[in-house]
Every structure is written in C-alpha cells, then in structure tokens.
C-alpha cells in the first residue's frame, strides 16, 4: 500500500489514525475497534463493511 495514501487515510467514524496490517490486508482503528479490509489493493472504508473487534480481543500494532 502506498505510504502517501496511508498518511491521509483516517477512520470514517472517529477520523482517527489507522494501523496498517500488510500481512492480513487490513486497516485497524484501535479507538473504534474496527477492521477495514483491503480488497484488490483498495481499502474499503465503509462503516457497514467494517468488522467489529470484540471487546475481549487485544488489538496489536
């Protein structure tokens, strides 16, 4: 994923910083506990497409 794109992307809900996980192809918002998947190199930044991270799961950088 392009570094410039990562620098400007933000969580669509809280506008916070996202963590890029290249090995699994996803962006994570720690504040909202949401995973945004990357499909064919394109981040899907729709809240309705995001996956919620359960409260009992620790979020790693």
Question: How would you describe this protein?
Answer:
- A hairpin with a 2-residue loop joins strand 3 and strand 4 (42-43).
- Strands 1, 2, 3, 4 and 5 form a 5-stranded antiparallel sheet that branches.
- It contains 1 helix and 5 strands, in the order αβββββ.
- The mean pLDDT is 93.
- The protein is mainly beta.
- The longest helix is centred in the N-terminal third of the chain and has 6 residues, at 3-8.
Structural class: mainly beta
Give the helices and strands as they follow along the chain.
HEEEEE
How many strands appear in the DSSP assignment? Answer: 5
Which parts are unreliable, with pLDDT below 50 for 5 consecutive residues or more? none
Q: Give the CA-CA distance, first to last residue.
A: 17 Å
Radius of gyration, in Å, reads: 11 Å
| Portion in strands | 25-35%
Mean pLDDT value:
93
- How would a textbook summarize the main sheet? 5 strands, antiparallel
Number of helices: 1
Overall spatial form: globular
Percent of residues in helices comes to under 10%
């Amino acid at each position: 994923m392009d570094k410039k794109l990562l620098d400007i992307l933000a969580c669509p809900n809280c506008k916070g910083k996202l963590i890029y996980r290249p090995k699994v192809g996803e962006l994570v918002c720690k504040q909202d506990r949401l995973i945004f998947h990357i499909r064919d190199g394109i981040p899907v930044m729709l809240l309705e497409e995001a996956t919620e991270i359960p409260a009992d799961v620790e979020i790693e950088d």
